[in-house]
Structures are given as C-alpha cells and as structure tokens.
Amino acid sequence: MADKRKILDAWIMAEMLESGDVKSSNLSKFEAEEYQKMGYYQLLLSRISKCRSWSKNNKVVIYFDIFDFSKVLDGLRKEYRFKEINPEVLSGEKVGFILKFQENNQCFKLLGNELFISSSYYLKNKGKVPDVEEFIKFEREFKEYIRKVFSSENIIGFNHKIEAIRKYYGIELSNCYFKLLRNGEQDEVKLNSFYLRDLRWAKERNSENLDSYLGLRVDKNQVNLEIRKNKPDYNPAVFE
C-alpha cells in the first residue's frame, strides 16, 4: 500500500513543477543594444508611445530570468530518482519572477500586491523541492526586498532600481523580457498553486475521507463505477 505522505509529497512537487510557465516568444526581449542606448525607462516609454489605445489602467510587466526548465528537471531527476517526467513539463520555459507597473504621466508605479516569484525559480536556485514553509519564507523575503527597493525612501531612478534587482539576483539581461498589457489583458504566467498550504496541512492529519480519496482505504460498501473498457477494473455489471 502506498504511503500517504509520499503521495502528498508527489502532489506538492507536481504543483510546484507547473509554477511559472511562460512562453518567451510571446514577450519582448530587452535587447542589449537598445538597453545601452535608452535604459529600461526610455525603452519602455518608447514602446508605450507606439502602442495604440494606451491608458493609465494598462500595465507594464517585466519578466526576470526566463529559463529552460529541462535543465532543472535533469538535476531533480537525479536527486529524486525519477524515471521519466511528462514531456510537456520537460520542454517548457519558466520565469523566475515578475514585476508589474502602472504607467501614468511617464511614471511607473510598482503594483506591490501583484508581485510574483515562482517555486520553479526556487528549484532552479536551491536545487531541491522546498518545504511549503520554506517557500513561503523565500517568497516573503523576495517581496520585502522588492518593496524596499521601490519604497519612497529610495530616491534612485527607475533604471537604477531595475538594474539593482537584476544584479542582486545575478540575472543576465538576455534572460529579461517585458510585455505591455492593455485593456485588462492578463499575463500568461501560471501562478503558484493555492493548494500547497492545504496539501502541507493534509500530510499532518489523519482522515478516513482523505485516505479513501487517495486510494489508501477501501470501504467494503464502495461500488466500483469504472465504465472505461480499457481499464483493468472495468465494471459493466453495475449498470445492467
């Protein structure tokens, strides 16, 4: 019989592996030549000036450290002795973290309540699957740092703030992208799962209902309703 904690650990890992999905082909890259001429601030304003129907409710999103997740999974496979991983997960790109801004009168205001750092980024940098509490701490420290950089007490300009963040996390400019979101458009990043805390909680609890849900407990009154013919427990008799 499978162990409940192992099942839930695998579930937690699966949720974390899906965090931060993104496609760089749908984004604009900070090209080195453009950046050197204009910096982040002027470059973004230049793109906004060419954007039709731009309003103060629209957003600018900066994506830091987009990376090939297959390299991270190679390390995880060795560490956790995986035999194989879903190819759709293996071939994907992930983003480390994103910052969102509202532009108004050529000023960029950080949207502090929309900060995002992916658990995939933790996996990449720490080389291990974090305990949920570890990741919450990692996420909290990230948000505190970003808010400090953009606090009113920090009088350095926008270019210096973005550059300070990039260098603090050791991210190459070539792995940074941006996107202009208009008219309520959403960015395409898959956020961290809301289930992580609940799964962590479930690992420490004893529940007959949970055990039954995970297939660890069979009720003698349970009726098999499998109707798929290609399944070993196919049971047509129950519908006769």
Question: What would a concise description of this structure say?
Answer:
The protein has 240 residues and is of the alpha+beta class.
SS-based class? alpha+beta
- Alpha-carbon distance between the termini? 32 Å
Helix content: 40-55%
- Please tell me how large the radius of gyration is: 23 Å
| Large-scale geometry | elongated
Mean of all residue-level pLDDT scores: 81
Structure annotation, total helices: 9
Succession of helices and strands: HEEHEHHEEEHHHEHH
Number of domains: 2
Which helices and strands appear, and what pairs or packs with what?
Layout: H1 4-17, E1 21-22, E2 28-29, H2 32-49, E3 59-68, H3 69-80, H4 87-90, E4 93-104, E5 107-110, E6 116-117, H5 119-126, H6 132-149, H7 158-168, E7 177-181, H8 196-203, H9 208-213
Describe the structure.
41% of the residues lie in helices and 15% in strands. The longest helix is centred in the first third of the chain and has 18 residues. It is of the alpha+beta class and 240 residues long. It folds into 2 domains: 194 residues, no CATH class; 42 residues, no CATH class. The relative contact order is 0.19. The two termini are 32 Å apart. The protein is elongated and about 70 Å long. Strands 1, 2, 3, 4, 5, 6 and 7 form a 7-stranded antiparallel β-sheet that branches. Helix 1 runs antiparallel to helix 8. Strand 4 and strand 5 form a beta hairpin.
Characteristics:
single chain, 240 residues, alpha+beta, seven-stranded antiparallel beta sheet, 9 helices, 41% helix, elongated
